[in-house]
Model the fold of this input.
Amino acid sequence: MTAANRARKPATRSRSVRPLTRILFITATRLGDAVLSTGLLDHLLRSVSDPRITVACGPVAAGLFERMPGRVRTLVVTKRRHDLHWLGLWRSCVGTWWDLAIDLRGSAVTLLLPARRRAIMRGGRRGGHRLAHLGGVLGLVPPPAPVVWIAGADRDRARALLPDGRTLVALGPTANWAGKVWPAARFAAAFEALLPHLPGALPVVLAGPGAAEHAMAQGVLDRLPGAIDLRGRLSLPEVAACLQRCRLFVGNDSGLMHLAAASGVPTLGLFGPSRSSEYAPAGARTAFVAGPRPAGPGARGGRAGGGGVAAGRARRGRAPAPRG
Done:
């Protein structure tokens, strides 16, 4: 084609595409899965112009998104009999035309909502790390790393609670079921073993609210009388800010372990019967130790005192590196 012909060719009219601004993000009930999903939200915040995001999650995870930029509201989904919580969520969302509806729970809710685009994570257990499963929802390989959102007020609270000039080691001795809980005596012994490498270190014991969490952590506090007790005293952003002041986190496979990894503190996760291949802490400064997994249908309810990380030959490793 000659230059003259090119000049006579009518200009192609550019098609304006409305940005994906109104986003519904349905994430997990449990804290750990919700933390792992924050990488997707961070990706959206970085790649979408002026995002307005509604997050739907369980009560335990709701505080995680309190400081998130671009958040319009958080819809707290409390489980109800006969799956009626999904009906309640649908009623809260059906009045909005969504540009993008993401459902990490694999429910039918987004199929029944007016939406320009949908991304639904299929259910069922499959191989590989959970972070890779989440990244696959938006076709992101490698998946984006989890993040935390912290305000200045959270850092001020952490500074008031944790002293300057001391080496702080955070301990997470709780979990959502007994089989994942490393015995208190072994937590205390592990901390004592660190002291030659971290002279003058001070233990910081973290746990969620409620009597069960307090009871699980009490044995560690009894064995480490100088420890700072932060059980149930903090919001999730404040916990993240406290973790960032620590030199190291050692804890059971739990939501707190994933929050520590997302906060950037060097994190060692302890795995007994749960799957390190799926839920090892993700990040550049993370590692895990996994004991042999018990076999049989009763393994999930097993006592960590009879096995867990200290039994048999432990495996050590790292999760696949996310995109940083």
